[in-house]
Every structure is written in C-alpha cells, then in structure tokens.
Amino acid sequence: MNQTRVMREKKTAPVKSTAQTSATFAKLRSAGLQAIFAVYIYILFKIILFKFSPIDFRFLWHQLQRSPDTTLRQLRQGNFTPLETVYNTFDPVTVTKLVNLTGNIALFIPFGIFIALLSSNRQISWFGVMLRSFGLSAMLECAQGLFSIGTFDVDDLLLNTLGGVLGYCLFRLWKAGRKARPSQ
Fold it and tell me: Does residue 86 contact residue 157 with C-beta atoms inside 8 Å?
C-alpha cells in the first residue's frame, strides 16, 4: 500500500519547468560569482595593504593611534605628480620596477571583469567601471597613507584604474567573440 502511494506521489509531483531550473541555476551562479568576488577583494586588500603578510587588526588600530604628524609625514612622502613613477620605471629599467608597473595593472583586471559580470543585466559602461576602479584604488591608496603601511602614489591610482578598464574591455571582446562564433 505504501509503495502504491509513493508511486502516485511521484506521478503527481510537480515537475520543475525549464524556466524554474534556469532561474535556480542563475541564482546559484550569481551567488558563486559574488563569493569569488569577495575572495578576490580580500586577496587584493592583502596584497596592496599588507604585502602578503597576515592581516593584523591590532596593528592597524595601533597605526591609527599614532600622531597626526606621522600621517602628514606619510603624505609628504607620497607621489602626487602624475606619471612620475611610470617615467622613473624606465630610467633605468629594473625587474622590480617593471613588476610594480605591470602588477598595478594586472591586479585590477579581474576587478573590471567582475564588475561587468556582476552588474545588473550586464549593462555597465567602461566609464562606470573606470569610476569604480578609481574609487577602490583611491580608497586603498589613502588607506596606505592613513595606516602608515605604504605611501600614496597617484600613478598606482592611474595604473589600477587602467587595469579595471582593461579587464572590462577584455570581457567585452570575449563576449563579442562568443556572439560572432557560429553555434555548433
């Protein structure tokens, strides 16, 4: 008797439509993408602010309690002249300088891709990505000076922003290439 009832329930159980399955998959994909983005942001903070060291909140609190003179000294050491660091990269060229230059761009390429993927209906312009990249980079550069764990460099800001826009452009090129390719 129980077996017959189970068979009837299976027959009458609502079958998920393709639209429901697709919507569920889209929600899972979006949640997974957001989780990966959060990990990327964590890694970005760790690289830029902590130079691969463990994040130590007690250290940050200690840095914030330092005198305002320390913050002013950090600001004076910063580079506020656009492209000065970029020009210095090539006079003379060293591996360290090239890694810094390309690293500042490469670190933000995923940011531009994530912003394009996570924007609603993927309707974000390169200008919107540029503003978001600039904003995140400015926050990180200012945090370096505020916490006295690095110096503000306007060139890092420009290179990070370039990286975000480059990531967005690469995503758009990839998407256009997929549309242009005939279905197989």
Answer: no
CA distance 44 to 156: 14
Residues 6+ apart with CB under 8 A from 17: none
Angle 102-107-113 from CA coordinates, rounded to 5°: 120
Contacts (Cβ under 8 Å, ≥6 apart) of 175: none
Over residues 76-135, the pLDDT tens digits come to 888 999 999 999 998 899 999 999 999 999 999 999 999 999 987 778 999 999 999 999
Distance from C-alpha of 54 to C-alpha of 47, rounded to nearest angstrom = 10
Contacts of 40 (CB under 8 A, 6+ apart): 110, 111, 114
User: By CB neighbour count within 10 A (0-12 exposed, 13-18 middle, 19+ buried), where does 146 fall?
Assistant: middle
Q: Specify the pTM.
A: 0.81
Tell me the Ramachandran region of residue 83: left when phi exceeds 0, alpha when psi lies from -120 to 50, beta otherwise. left
**pLDDT for the residue numbered 1:** 54
Mean pLDDT of the chain: 86
In three-state secondary structure terms, 32 is helix
Q: How far apart are the first and last CA of the chain?
A: 50
CA distances to 20, 27, 103 from 148, in Å: 52, 41, 21
